[in-house]
Amino acid sequence: MMSRKMSEENKDRLELGGSAIVFEVRGDVGERVQRLREKFDPVLANEIPVEITVAGSSGVGPIAFGQDGETVLNELGRIARRLKPFEAWLGRVIRFPGTDIFVFEVLPREPFELFYRWLSDSSIVFEPIVNPFFPHCSLHIWGPVGPELAAEMLRQRIKGSFRVDSFAVYQRIGEKTVGLAERFPLTGP
Fold first, then answer.
1. Nearest to 127 by CA among 52, 23, 18
2. Which helix (H) or strand (E) holds 27?
3. 51-108, pLDDT tens digit by residue?
4. Which of 16, 27, 51, 126 could form an S-S bond across to 22 if both were Cys, CB 3.0 to 4.6 Å?
5. pTM above threshold 0.70
């Protein structure tokens, strides 16, 4: 059973268009990423939770507008029942070519790619996106980066794993800020 974060009165207005679907990075690993974000990209640290986007700015694209929110949530609940919890860890920091975006690669890639395929094959409609899916956790996305700062970010490593036992739907609240709309526990066999 999924946990409801929205009040009963909000269900009548449930519009998930533009929302992202993410795996949150919690625990010690998430806290360490958050501290690094505070150092390297305070806007990111304050506006977006530590997560791995599978639908939104990465992955299959954001949820398209005009769909029935409850239908979308029901489909996501069905997908959550297919995937069992798993362990993941952060690999090296990479810089997206031609940008000042720095991210941790996420390993193993397979469970994230499987989830991505299930979303792609689902009844949910997503907005188009131009970038191929690459499981990652953002370290820096806003603002220019000089050579010294770039070198420092590329040297960052976080040891340890984190348990992935749920995914979440986040809605955009402002230009950059997002808020939790729903969380789905992974209950697969």
1. 18
2. helix 27-40
3. 999 999 889 999 999 999 999 999 999 999 999 999 999 999 999 999 999 999 999 9
4. 51
5. yes
